[in-house]
Design a protein that fits this description.
The two termini are 24 Å apart. The chain is globular, with a radius of gyration of 14 Å. The protein has a five-stranded mixed β-sheet with strand order 1-2-3-5-4. Helix 1 runs parallel beside helix 3. The chain is built from four helices and five strands. The longest helix is centred in the N-terminal third of the chain and has 25 residues. It is 46% helix and 26% strand. The chain is α+β, with helices and mostly antiparallel strands.
Length: 136
């Protein structure tokens, strides 16, 4: 049953990426994804959380970014999962990064998993997620 559960989660994360791509395409924003196969091995709860974070990031990109692309990079080290979500848009408004309801929701989701979340302006908006593999 464990494998079936993992497969269902993977499908959900890949479906999230597929829906994100469609929604972004309608807004004339291209979705670029690196190492999505690596994300297949991420813990189920982590994948679900990343899916929710991606949905929020896509919504923000469409509403505010004026970007031409949104890039999602999945990676991992022996102790942590890493995800970078970035675009080439206008970036976060000064002083508004931590106040936004959507961004604070992202931060809370990642902190629930014992991880960290940073919001940066780097030729557009950049969200950097780091989540430990073993919690407890």
């Amino acid at each position: 049953m464990g494998d079936k559960q993992k497969g269902a989660t993977l499908e959900t994360l890949l479906q999230t990426l597929h829906v994100a791509s469609d929604n972004l395409k309608q807004a004339k924003i291209t979705l670029l994804v690196e190492n999505e196969t690596r994300a297949m091995s991420f813990d189920q709860e982590v994948q679900q959380t990343i899916g929710a974070v991606l949905n929020e990031a896509v919504t923000n990109a469409i509403r505010y970014s004026e970007a031409s692309f949104l890039k999602v990079i999945f990676d991992e080290s022996p102790e942590k999962y890493h995800v970078i979500i970035k675009d080439d848009g206008v970036g976060f408004k000064a002083g508004k990064k931590e106040e936004s309801f959507g961004l604070s929701g992202i931060k809370q989701r990642i902190q629930k998993l014992g991880g960290t979340c940073m919001f940066k302006n780097n030729n557009g908006a950049q969200i950097i997620l780091t989540i430990p593999k073993k919690r407890g």
